[in-house]
Design a protein that fits this description.
The complex is a heterodimer. By secondary structure, chain A is mostly helical. Chain A has helices at 3-27, 33-58, 66-86, 91-117, 122-140, 186-205, 207-217, 219-224, 229-252, 265-278, 283-300, 311-327, 329-356, and strands at residues 143-148, 151-156, 169-173. Chain A has a 3-stranded antiparallel beta sheet, covered by helices on one side. Chain B has one domain (2-123, 184-299). Chain B contains 11 helices and 5 strands; from the N terminus they run ααααββββααααβααα. In chain B, strands 3-2-4 form a 3-stranded antiparallel beta sheet. In chain B, helix 1 (2-31) runs antiparallel to helix 8 (206-231) and helix 2 (38-54) crosses helix 9. Classes of the chains: A mainly alpha, B mainly alpha.
Chain lengths: 357, 313
Amino acid sequence: MRKTTKNNLITFGGTLILCVVLGILMQAGKLNSMTTGLMVTIGIYIIASTSLNLTVGVLGELSLGHAGFMCIGAFSSATVSTLMINGGAPNWLSFAVAIIFGAIMAAILGFLIGIPVMRLRGDYLAIVTLGFGEILKSLFNNIYITSDKNGLHFGFTNPPKNIDASTKLEILRGPKGTSAPDLTNFWVVAAVLLICLIILMTFIDSKSGRACMAVRDNYIAAQSVGINVTKFRLMAFTLSAAIAGAAGALYMHSLANMLPKKFDYNLSILILVYVVLGGLGSLRGSIIATIVLYAIPELLRGINQNIVNYRMLIYAIILICLMLWKNAPVFINMREKIKAKCKKSKTADLTSGGAEA
Amino acid sequence: MSFISNLLNGISLGSIYALIALGYTMVYGIAKMLNFAHGDIIMVGGYAAFITMAANWCPLWLSMVITVAVCTVLGVVIEKVAYRPLRSSPPLAVLITAIGVSYLLQNIALLTQTANPKTFTSIAAGAPPFLQVFSGKGAVFFKANPYQDEGLKPVLTVSMETFLAIVVSVIIMIALTLFINKTKAGRAMMACSEDRGAAQLMGINVNATISLTFAIGSALAAVAAVLMCSAYPQISPYTGSMPGIKAFVAAVFGGIGSIPGAMIGGVLLGVIEILSKFYISSQLSDAIVFMVLIVMLIVRPTGIMGKKISEKV
């Protein structure tokens, strides 16, 4: 079996087993409601961080606007699910359509944003994605959608007027947030997570995914062997946006009221922390890092309330130390020396052992 | 008259952005990295000024000196500890480290100063406005309203803070331009930004030059912090991040690495922000500022004053 296939199978199988075990425990009533809620949130964050890993790890570009794509997914899916349920469609169908719609909307925007963004690289790309994230957040802070018997009414910066009061249904309420039906549960999150993992693994292992990695490792060399750099970068960026949109849709339907300002720069950074600490380009790493970094502070909250306040401080320190440890020449040399020493002592052991025998 | 007043406010905010953008652009020009923590150095400067100004023993001039000193030391230390070891590393690693530093400063502030915004006392508190214009009576400089008794209200007021921000920024920019063009250290900075390897071969101490750049950039951030917190009298751990990002937009707008570009970009961005806040929508002004960046990068990626750099194998 190929090494990548084996690796992917381990990641996917592990996630599947974890989902099934947690699901059975939940159905058997062994988990309290806090843990169940935590599982849903962690699942959503895993979807977001694995999708960001596609941009940061595989494409090698730092996107700081990931929350913006979650924002589109969240609010467009809420519009669809609210309208469909109001129109009498069954819950499961409305939710499925809403998630897919959210993902498609995020993909369309990801594509449109990607056209200018993918011309840039490095620091410029980071700051422009940050800018787009902020733009999307402020747009949804200003969009109002209300439906009544005459159809949909849109408002920008102000709520729409002349609405039939008896059939009035406010969907998006600008800065006051949106109340989507509470549909997200553990099983939906697990299903979406597994589907996203399959999509991501297939993509990364495909010809396009390998082209993206070639571009990451050497832009000019990749270009010179005839890889259409922009096309593959755009493809990966769009896919990453689409999955983030699905994560946003799930997030929206898991909370009673969602404010647009929740999808800010800090959310993007939090997801980025999970990706970087899990390991760039490693889906398994993102999954484990998200679970560990999200669950530990929450579980420790019971022991000490203050620990959650120190969470981001500790992440920041770990982030800096990890980058220094991995990339600073001083530490790289030190690591190599230690490695060489270990090897030496091992071979010394072997030879001495051989002599005794 | 309201247009003129908005324009002046825009120029005042823009000159603060320009001061911050100078820090970004100098560091980017020489160290070739985006110092994400620059915005948070502003925040630290704001708190340093806030704390020292609240203390009884500390006169205003001393608290300004302390603020500048704190930021300068902080900037140099950050460069030495976090950025210098990574100088030859891939850009992604440097960028992530910079974000880490920015988050570290923000969270230290959150833990020591709490998230509640505090009211900052303006350095020009109690001073009369710089300029008041009355219809039919002409202009009055540096004086309280002399027509108070007649119930006459000025049609145009320029506050002391607005005036100070513009004057201080102009003085600093002139000084900085002279420093870079006329002194040995300034020329060393230019040489480093042009070609670091060649500069080193010519006997320039590159490490010291980069440290000096961070020191100057952070000192400018400290001045910007005091001016900004005086004009918008509030301080919280998040005070620095948005102005920091906008100043980076200004630096890109003017052409990153170019010092006159940062000045022009900063002022233009401040004017755009205030005018769009007033005439379009106050909630959308941030979105408009970022749209400017995106349009700029599509139309002219090197900025107003930037040079075109082609990548070589």
